[in-house]
Amino acid sequence: MTIHVSRCSFGYRRRDLVLEDLTLDLPSGCVVLLGPNGAGKSTLLALLASARRPGSGRVTLDDLDTRRRGHLKQYRRQVGWLPQQVTPVPGLRVREQAAYAGWLKGLSRRDAWDGSLEAIKQVGLGELAERSAAQLSGGQLRRLGIAQTLVHSARVVLMDEPTAGLDPTQRRVFRALLDDLKDRADFVVSTHQTEDLAHSYDSVILLDQGRVLFEGATASFLDLAPGQVAQEHRAEAAYAGLVKEEM
Ligand SMILES: Nc1ncnc2c1ncn2[C@@H]1O[C@H](COP(=O)(O)OP(=O)(O)OP(=O)(O)O)[C@@H](O)[C@H]1O
To answer: Which part of the chain is the ABC transporter domain (predicted)?
Structure first.
């Protein structure tokens, strides 16, 4: 288990809860977070990242509690967050942006700079180290976002729709990268893409209207599809069965 969510409620407006009394143990390994538009996936990731605080309930990692100001720095050092949009920092080159992210997480300038080269190499951007971050493509920017979480050796990396808008080749590049990085951290990845679920993810969390509809091993999730459904469509069918969508 990595992050523990205990009886969390959250609303952007009072009396309009997006997440209600949510309890969740995020398992180790690679977790995919599924759910229809507006289900609350980004909101949950923002709570896990401690970018937002729950109205009630607790988000903890070991004995670090995001409600306690004194714990936040250490919590954030251990949890990396790749939001939907990775923004190039004006004037910074690729390696500098990765180093800057490490420094913001509390590394010394030296450690951040030293760690940045290894991090960008790991995501396949080593040859672009000196390029302006503003010149990266969408897929390359996402990879830089991942590198930013590797610089400070996050234990848990949260990714909000990292493959949205990427072409099939870039999606494959992302999946291969995730495979390569699996030993370095635990990952929680929100996505609408159910292709290759069995290969890429150990467990599935399915949210709908702020409630958990499924939480368990990927194999158990795929087993929810009717027996006659072909392997490549099982994730889609299991999902549709749970959120009662028309296929
Ligand atoms: N900043 C905000 N202010 C007010 N309401 C918000 C805000 N962000 C999200 N919401 C609302 O919270 C609910 C959950 O949104 P959220 O973005 O967490 O869902 P999601 O599952 O990530 O959706 P998607 O798959 O479309 O990205 C939605 O009803 C959304 O309109």
So the answer is: 3-234
CB 27 within 8 Å of CB 220: no
Q: Give CA angle at 195 (120, 42), nearest 5°.
A: 65
Structural domains of the chain, count: 1
Summarised one tens digit per residue, pLDDT across range 10-26 is: 999 877 899 999 999 99
Q: What is the pLDDT of residues 188-244, one digit of tens each?
A: 999 998 888 888 999 999 999 999 999 999 999 999 999 899 988 999 999 999 997
Which residue owns the Cα nearest ligand 1 atom 31?
A: 38
Cβ of 42 below 6 Å from ligand 1: yes
ipTM of the complex: 0.97
Nearest CA to ligand 1 atom 7: 12
Calculate how far, in angstroms, residue 116's C-alpha sits from the geometric centre of ligand 1. Answer: 33
Measure the CA–CA gap between 132 and 142, rounded to whole angstroms: 15
Phi, psi (rounded to 5 degrees) for 221:
-65, -45
Range of the domain at 111: 3-243
Q: Residue 134: which CATH number?
A: 3.40.50.300
Q: Which pTM was predicted?
A: 0.91
The residues pairing with 190 across neighbouring beta strands, listed in sequence order, are: 33, 160
Ligand 1: nearest atom to the Cα of 207: 21
Q: Which residue's CA lies nearest to atom 5 of ligand 1?
A: 12
Q: Which atom of ligand 1 is the closest one to the Cα of 40?
A: 18
